[in-house]
What does this fold into?
Amino acid sequence: MSVVVGILKESYFLILKISPYLLFGFLFAGVLHVFVRTETIARHLGKNNAGAVFKASLFGIPLPLCSCGVIPAALSLRKEGASKGATLSFLISTPTTGVDSIALTLVFFGTFFTFYRIGVSFLAAMSAGLLTNFFVSNIDEQEPSQEKGGGQGCPLCHLSKERPRNKSVFISIKEIVNYAFVVLLKDSYRWLLLGVLAGGIISFFVPQNFFRDYIGGGFFSIVIMTLVGVPMYICASGSIPIAMSLMTKGLTFGGVFAFLFAGAATNTITLAMIFNKLGKRAFFIYVFIIISNALFFGWLMNICYGTAGIDFEFAKVYNYGFPGVWVERFSAIVLVVLIFFNIIKQNKGV
It folds into this structure.
């Protein structure tokens, strides 16, 4: 019983810290969803050139979709006419960032880490898209199932392509709240809870300075965290509590970055989809870009930490926090109530 209580206490601490920023991130995601149309994005991604890849990499950064949630969105864009290179770029930049994950990263890991993470996600997405344009044929662009107007909109959004352009303020607010706290939260709450619980288990069981004492803080730890992250399914936000717990146990910022990047970008489902829908060459480009970027930029992060004098002291990263504990508690209560609401609604088949 003492073990269970200890794990729950550690998990409670984590959910207190992340709840305000998750709620803000989900809300902002709802605003993006209502006012940014999928088919509008697709029109910018149809050409097989660097411009389409650039736009896909940029569009994906604020969208809060995990590495499985991004699949239906990417398939929808592909059906709307997006090129293979742009689709692959979107599949990398979208799950590795997102407004909810960016908010959490800024609060708990600092400004430098946040912009570093965004920058690497963008560069990795650009690299993958450009390589795909160069090495992978885009000949299936005009398959019958992909003809313009043949899609049914983004399956994740549960909306048709023919959304009305002019809506009242009340309807817009209703759609924002529904997408943020019903559709999006329903798709991610399992992995958020899993991440919080896993973080609590790590905090409770793993000895202090475990990574520093037993694995070391060098390149080997980055390799280990990359290999751990690649097959895992964990969303960019859900991985933050785990990363926080790993850091308190001595994992370096380079190792944390490799885990966050590789873990959010990939999982076995995404890999299978890319192999099936975009082909073998796109699959190998994707895997190569994810692993090489996680290793190189994780190593470079440790170099910055060791030589640039950047303050990465974990005890000081809460400088963006809210002024009162009551805000955290209130946000945690709201988040838990919303999660239980979604669980009950899902079980009733509503």
